[in-house]
Amino acid sequence: MTKKISSLNIIAIICTKLVQGVPEEDIRKSLDLENDFLFYVEFALENNWIIKQEDGGYKLTEYGKEFVSQFQA
Question: Is 90 exceeded by the pLDDT of residue 3?
Fold first, then answer.
């Protein structure tokens, strides 16, 4: 039996991987999100869970840390 992953869980995974420096293309492929990836990233940015840094990387905000922690085992 497979477990369905919620959209919020997917966003938490994306945030975590972006902050770790995983390339966006690798995240898209690993989660099979070719069409929805940018939507999820924009949603995370709009909700102030991550911020894009000047070097092009991402950083979790305090809200983001709290959000992501809800989905970690």
Answer: no
